[in-house]
Amino acid sequence: MTREGVVPGVRLRRLDEEGLERLLALAVADADPADVMPPGWEVDRHDEFRRFYRGFLRDAYEVVDGGRTVGMARLTAEGEAGLWLARAARGRGTGRAVVRRLLEEAPGRGVRTVVASTTTGNVAAVRVLTALGAELEVVGGEVSARIAVPTDPPSRRA
Fold first, then answer.
1. What residues pair up with 72 in beta bridges, in sequence order?
2. Can you tell me the distance from the alpha carbon of 130 to that of 37, in angstroms, rounded to the nearest whole number?
3. Residue 63 contacts residue 73 (beta carbons within 8 Å)
4. Taking the model in full, what pTM does it have?
5. C-beta atoms surrounding 86 within 10 Å
6. Can you list the pairs that 72-77 forms with residues at least 24 positions away whose Cβ atoms lie under 8 Å?
7. pLDDT tens, 104-136?
8. If you placed Cys at 62, which of 19, 104, 110, 132 could pair as Cys (CB 3.0 to 4.6 Å)?
9. Which region among 51-55, 139-143, 149-153, 154-158 has the lowest average model confidence (pLDDT)?
10. CA angle 150, 154, 155 (to 5 degrees)
């Protein structure tokens, strides 16, 4: 990790058909089905997974860490963001790195504010959003977050 707590090798790769198959394998092997797709998906329903993700390929990224697929992230033209990570990729700063990468992608998509939704029970996500300066609104158990996209390019450290 860097001093800012971000895993330096984490990058986003546009999701394509090959990446879709890597994500499916990861979802089956090392993810909570409820994180991967709307509730009700089961790991043996591969065609349903493919149809779901093909529906937003233009907004989706494969999360890659050290050459391995570790999750999925999305960023729509309206600024809506979301992600899921394999269990093995959690707790190491990967989520924070992914959100930073999405913030770097946002200006190229014309996005000035990134919005995300989670629940109060998703403590890790709330921590990441708070650490990155998100404005949070909590209603019941639902959390809505807004992060202003930095207008200056991120500084690169040697």
1. 62, 84
2. 24
3. yes
4. 0.87
5. 23
6. 72/15, 72/23, 72/36, 73/12, 73/98, 73/101, 73/102, 75/102, 75/105, 75/106, 75/109, 75/111, 75/114, 77/109, 77/110, 77/111
7. 999 999 999 999 999 999 999 999 999 999 999
8. 19
9. 154-158
10. 140
Residue type, 112: R
Measured distance CA(96)–CA(114) in Å, rounded: 14
Residues belonging to the chain: 158
Burial label for 155, CB within 10 Å (0-12, 13-18, 19+), is exposed
Q: Do 73 and 97 form a contact (C-beta atoms < 8 A)?
A: no
- 58-72 pLDDT, tens digit per residue, is 999 999 998 999 999
Let me know: does 147 contact 104? Beta carbons within 8 Å: no
Task: Return the number of other C-beta atoms located less than 10 Å from residue 40's C-beta.
Answer: 9
CB under 8 Å to 57, separation ≥6 — which residues? 15, 16, 20
The crossing angle, in degrees rounded to 10, of helices 123-131 and 94-105 is 50
| Token pair listed for 69 | 């697929």
Residue from 67, 73, 20 nearest 47 by CA: 20
Domain formed by 10-148, architecture: 3-Layer(aba) Sandwich (3.40)
